[in-house]
Amino acid sequence: MGEWSAAQYLKFEDERSRPARDLLARVPLDRPQRVVDVGCGPGNSTEMLADRYPAAEVVGLDSSADMLATARRRLPDVRFVEADIADWVPDRPFDLAFANAVFQWVPDHLGVIGRLLEASPPGGVLAMQVPDNLDEPTHRLMADVARAGPWRGRFAAPIARETIPPPAAYYDRVKPLSAWVDIWHTVYHHPLEDAGAIVEWVKGTGLRPYLDRLDAGEREVFLAAYLAGIEAAHPPLIDGRVLLRFPRRFVVAVRK
């Protein structure tokens, strides 16, 4: 998959940051010594962690050089590490491992979550949220357009993205390691300017691996077909805006 674009991602910073704020509000820690932002992206969630825990050592972790460059400019006093989350192992225990919208890209992320929690000290916290939107029109239309066009051969191999397991699978994975587990599901409804804004949103995330398989001319035609589907699935509201429905899964676990 091609390089992430921090600029594209941050076009909707406030909306993307809201789930991170909601997740952080449920973290039962007052004075952690070490905090890691797993999949920190451009540093928006890292900044929240640094603001809430000013006395802690906060580390941002991501595999994207562009995201990390933006994060370092934003937070020059925070240490950022480039690493693949799938096989990253902390050099020392973290009191809080915080992961905002990253594990949907990580193979066997239940295993990775368990490994992070196992590496936490007693009382340490794993806090994560993932989009649960593969059945939403935004993502069903990506696959539909990929199968329908002259580029269908480019998608013979499926797009790699983790299916989000049911809540019971998360509970069963973390509960044997945990003194306390909190799991919930929230559906956000983001008012956006128009259907084109929805396309811009997913160009920064879920649509990226589709566009990566196309040449420049194909991308233009693909995006036009995709936009037409998005417009049909998201009729305008009374003020001309549209609502992007966005479900997310949250898990907080405290190491026993």
Structure characteristics:
10 helices; 22% strand; alpha/beta; Rossmann fold; 256 residues; 7-stranded mixed sheet
Task: Report on the architecture of this protein.
With 256 residues, the chain is of the alpha/beta class. It has a single domain (6-255), classed as 3-Layer(aba) Sandwich (Rossmann fold). Helices cover 38% and strands 22% of the residues. It is built from ten helices and seven strands. A seven-stranded mixed beta sheet has the order 3-2-1-4-5-7-6, with helices on both faces. Helix 2 (13-25) runs parallel beside helix 3 and helix 5 runs parallel beside helix 7 (167-174). It is globular. The protein starts with 5 loop residues before the first helix and ends with a strand.
Supply the CATH superfamily name. Vaccinia Virus protein VP39
Largest sheet: 7 strands, mixed
Overall geometric form: globular
Q: Compute the average pLDDT.
A: 93
Name of the top-level CATH class? Alpha Beta
Distance between the termini: 37 Å
Q: Strand arrangement, largest sheet? A: 3-2-1-4-5-7-6
Poorly predicted tracts of residues: none
Succession of helices and strands = HHEHEHEEHEHHEHHHE
Structural class: alpha/beta
CATH structural architecture: 3-Layer(aba) Sandwich
Compute the number of helices.
10
How many structural domains can be distinguished in the coordinates? Answer: 1
Count the strands? Answer: 7
**Radius of gyration, in angstroms, nearest whole number:** 19 Å
Assign a percent range to the helix content: 25-40%
The CATH topology label is Rossmann fold
> What is the beta-strand fraction?
15-25%
